[in-house]
Amino acid sequence: MFDVSQVAIPQHPGIYIMRNGDGTVIYVGKAKNLRRRVRSYFSRSQDPKTARLVEQIRGIEFVLTDTESEAYILESGMIKRHRPKFNIELKDQERYTYLKITDEKYPRLVVARRTRKGKFLGKGDVYGPFVHGSSKLLTIGTLRKTFKVRICKTLPKKVCLEYHMGNCEGPCEFAGAQERYGSHIADLVEVLRNRDQAGAFAGKLKAEMEQASEMRQFERAREIRDTLARLGSLRQEQKMARPQGADEEFFGIRVSGGEAVVMNFRLAGGVIRDSDRFTFDTVGDNNFGNFLYQYYTTHPVPDIIVVSQEPENRAILEEMLSAHSGQPVVIITPDNTMRQNMIGLLLRNIDAAAISDPGVLELQGILDLPRPPRIIECFDISNHGADYAVGAMSRLVDGKPDKSGYRKFRIREVQGRDDYSMIREVVRRRYVRLSRENGTMPDMVLIDGGKGQLGSAVSALKEAGVSLPCASLAKENEEVYLPGGKEPITIPRKMPSLQVLQRARDESHRFGVAYNRAIRSAQIK
């Protein structure tokens, strides 16, 4: 039986890919919280079909997304690629939809139709996908009314009922409406394309609704209220989609300890359909540029390759790939919000996959940290009289001691037995120096002690001019204190997250005691 407790599962939206002993994908699923969903498969109460699936699981992989909606889209593409035997494949049109602004003198807003191969029919600019497809027609109707977009397939010579209902200004007949039509379409494009503009437009509508209500124009206020409700399904930023146009492929890379990890997203039909991870040793000429060239000897070359860092010999690589594909190819770093978010998501996926200790991911959720605390630095004071007081710092990377990163401190500024002031001194000294040397900051600072020691450390971080998540672990009841928290957090003793904190605390204590003894022994001699 597969031991899921030994797998570091993120508490994020995304998809999970289950493989059997041969490495074959047998199931792909999505979840708002990957950890909660995946662990539910291994509960005692299972139906027979789920039990058969679990019996065959020998490995689980994850791809993070920022929202559950994005996971929904990516899941569909991965199912189409792998066709797992435990999945049911559904049609794209049942899951999400695209909207199109037609290429006409006075454009219309319509549902974009596609061929079975994914190519969009007809001319015009395509936006999406929008996951809330079940209400797409009602949403389109609301947008048409809001932006005064015509619905007639053939422009009539006289205004129709839509004009008299206030849904269209009548560009078919009135010169003023013809002049304003372009600005209405431009506003619509901004709402479909840009999340910030959608929010600004919603704010404008809300002000108009309040004004209409004050003027007792209740029918108009109700219409605006309905518009705001429908806009909610379109305001979510769709990083996994873009307007129809040039093909793009995204690559993120992390290099550490002589090994490079690369992850990519491939877009097809405007959405992410697939992703892969690769690793290679950075020896000799093994670099990112060589990887990209080797990759495209066996994969289709897109028009645009977006990378997290510029590869070596970029110009030569562009020239060779262009010759290989027969069309111009450019390699760029992110130059807009969508591409930046896509690359950021790739790098987060690489980082999450590198975490082998489940407790590290647990800590992110339990302590509400902005990211998994892959690097934890823990401080302790070893105080055996004023002449022998020392500070010690342990360092954990992915839950394991990194002894090359341990540090020891002789107390310089504090007289007497004052643990609070000593903590403040060593924490300040550590991060003032780290800032000055542009060193790698930890993801979390841990203090051996209670609320008082934590307060001293927080003050020291402010004095050092750095902002880092900070917590303390009290020995007596193994309670965790957070800045501003009224009550401590109690983590069950069997949970891997508490064991990570205890490991960091015990290492700093051991290191500090050893240093203290060495000083006392030297002075006695």
Q: What would a concise description of this structure say?
A:
This protein has helices at 34-40, 48-56, 68-82, 136-146, 161-164, 175-193, 195-214, 218-231, 288-295, 314-325, 337-354, 358-366, 419-436, 451-464, 496-524, and strands spanning 14-19, 25-31, 59-64, 97-102, 109-111, 124-130, 248-256, 259-268, 271-281, 304-307, 330-332, 375-382, 390-397, 400-401, 407-410, 444-448, 470-474, 479-481, 489-490. It has 525 residues and is α+β, with helices and mostly antiparallel strands.
Folded structure, characterized:
The protein is an alpha+beta fold. It has 4 domains: 4-92, GIY-YIG endonuclease, CATH 3.40.1440.10; 97-130 and 132-231, no CATH class; 248-353, Nucleotidyltransferase, domain 5 (2-Layer Sandwich); 358-524, UvrC, RNAse H endonuclease domain (Nucleotidyltransferase, domain 5). 39% of the residues lie in helices and 21% in strands. Strands 12, 13, 14, 15, 16, 17, 18 and 19 form an 8-stranded mixed β-sheet that branches. Mean pLDDT is 82; it is low at 89-95, 132-138 and 233-245.
